[in-house]
Amino acid sequence: MQNLRIAVVGASLGGLSIANVAHRLGAKVSVWEVFPSGFHLRGGALGSVDTELLQSLRGDSDESFRKGIRSHGHFYGDLWSYLYEGLPEGTVRFGMHVERVVGQDTDTPALVFSKPPDISSDNKQCNDAFAEPVPFDLIIGADGGRSTIRGYVTPQEPTYSGYTVWRGLCSTKDVSGPPSGSAKSKGFTYETLGFPVMTPKGQLWNCGVYMAMPQSEVEKPTKNRQVSAAMKRVPDWFVPFVRKHFGDKNAEFWSACSQKGKVSPHPVWELAANRVVNRRIMLVGDAAHMASPRTGAGAYTAMVDAYVFGQVMEQLSGEQPISVQEALELYNENTVKRGKRLYQRSRNAASYFAPEHLQATHPKLLI
């Protein structure tokens, strides 16, 4: 992979994971992220993390890292910062919107950028990139559920699972918790649960409410699982629904969380792409496969994608060298198989919260 020019579109955990692997193998890596800044303070947590896998991606054997991982869940920002710091300065370029890919049927596809509306006209780094298409030897789409790159690999799009997770983040100092409970109504199961996580801003409750929602009431997946501004308003029916199904104590928690923290809906979308490589364009993470958080495998699967990518690319200079395209086909075969297995696990979770034979009723009608 020495001197191979690789563009990674998207700087979430999946994008930074594969960027670290490519960098260690000698590639010239650049990461292009549409958001204007990093995710080191991004809220939310992962319940469990394979820290040994994470370290192998960065090429780090320092045991102090594993000892330093915060208990009671892993803060997203800590993991993101760890991977970000494993890359040379300037590798990740923020505020860069990939408009399209050109030359996708060649060995040197190119990215075409457009300026996001929130980027000032005097941003020289951005202005230089908008001048003309930028060619690469490999383009990796790590740009989330609403992937720009996916369309150049497969026509498949994510499908809605039938339920939504309302996620809550608030300080443990301000709100007593966590919530806990389950209920059944008209054949559907509803749950609320959570755990504490330590962040640079102190300890937070990382909580959720799982509930069936009609697809007409949810938005399509967004890049890097961000939530649009229109979705951040907590509806009037939310706390009364919690009170009726989970009791007063849980209702008090979610009421306080919505006032002193943040509560936002995250519709669960699913995808198992039947192809994740098209010539010199490939997919990783949510761009390739999406699953319920109940699988506990979202970020982990993206990290495995990066690990597999490293394994096949090492064969370029092995005892019996293979070509770049042969290596990418090996990645495709492995990732598609894993994605299908993950999709089935996600479908099993969906059968619990949104059975396929039932039509979801809007929660506001169940109060």
Would you spell out the secondary-structure blueprint of this structure?
Blueprint: E1 5-9, H1 13-24, E2 28-33, E3 45-46, H2 51-58, H3 63-68, E4 74-75, H4 76-84, E5 92-94, E6 97-102, E7 110-114, H5 124-129, E8 134-135, E9 138-141, E10 159-171, E11 181-185, E12 188-199, E13 202-212, H6 238-246, H7 248-260, E14 262-272, E15 277-278, E16 281-283, E17 289-290, H8 298-313, H9 324-353
Parallel strand pairs: 1-2, 1-9, 2-5, 9-16
Antiparallel strand pairs: 3-4, 6-7, 7-8, 10-13, 10-14, 11-12, 12-13, 14-17, 15-16
Helix pairs in contact: 1-4, 1-8, 2-8, 6-7, 8-9
Q: Provide the CATH architecture of the largest domain.
A: 3-Layer(bba) Sandwich
Helix and strand run: EHEEHHEHEEEHEEEEEEHHEEEEHH
Radius of gyration (CA) equals 21 Å
How many separate domains? Answer: 2
Portion of residues in beta strands equals: 25-35%
Largest beta sheet: what is the strand line-up?
Answer: 5-2-1-9-16-15
The total strand number stands at 17
Structural class: alpha+beta
Q: What value does the average pLDDT take?
A: 89
The unreliable regions are 227-231
Shape: globular
Q: Which CATH class of the largest domain applies here?
A: Alpha Beta
Distance between the termini: 59 Å
Main sheet: strands, sense, barrel: 6 strands, mixed
And the CATH topology of the largest domain?
FAD/NAD(P)-binding domain
